[in-house]
Protein 1
Amino acid sequence: MNSVETIIEDIKKLSGKYNPHIIFSDWVRMYAISIQNSCTLSNKLWEKREEEYINTMKRYTTEEMKIMVEMNGLLVIENEEKISDYLGEIYMKSGAGSKETGQFFTPFHISELVAKMNLKDIKDGESILINEPSSGGGGMILAAAKILIEKGINYQKYMEVVAQDLDWLGVYMTYIQLSLLGIKATVIQGDTLGR
């Protein structure tokens, strides 16, 4: 069983008191906050995030929190192997997604195809700015990074991203995945269409 399959099984094991969507959402919220707060000096925003983390954490037992921390490590391990939209895959396969939540993530091989077509003429040394108006889990951005690696281009040096999503879950997922890969990005929660 690989790391992604283990995370999916862990989410299913944690289900009972909460459904997989809530468990997944709480996990990525706490993971994103822990990354952000480790990079921020203590201030009012840090304190607000920390309070949100603690309030979310209180819903779970010590044993359940240990499982979630192990899930964090498993996601890091998977990202060290190769680039993919692991959180999108976990979301869809763990039962966290449904018609009611209205979120469906693009299969990563489709994201790769789009990135390959859009980046076919990019040369090493060129700056690349990606504006992703509906980032979901960040799959399109991750695919771009993967294609750049295949072309021998250092995405950490030449790629810069502005990503936005209406749903905080998408913001957290994108933020985690881009952070784990060292992608220079600003991830924003908001309505791209400005409605």
Protein 2
Amino acid sequence: MKKLIALIVLALTFNFATQAQSGMAKDANVVTVKLEQTKGEFTQKNVTLKEGTYVFNVTNNQAGTDVGFVLVPEGKDASNPENHIKEAYVTQVVKEGTTESSNVVTLSKGTYKYFCPLNKTPQYTLVVK
């Protein structure tokens, strides 16, 4: 009986370790894109990325208001939230002097528009090659 319990514990430990390593491997492929907003604009006017998986970090550098981040495929109506890539939203509004992150977003080749409706920025271009 003790051998059986020991084997079950060993199998569970191995399974947990394998899952943890596969999770780390996924995280290793996620690239962080750092964006900064000041009053009425992003400081990064155009962004070019490779096809892949990303997290967007958005910093509020004295924008004078809380800020956010919206990403929309080009050609879609950016004013319609149904067209927004929801995973790209920051997980909470970005207060002055802080940085917040989006969820993980996988982007395929194409052109996208990004902007902040809270800070009333123009729409900027993000290209994925």
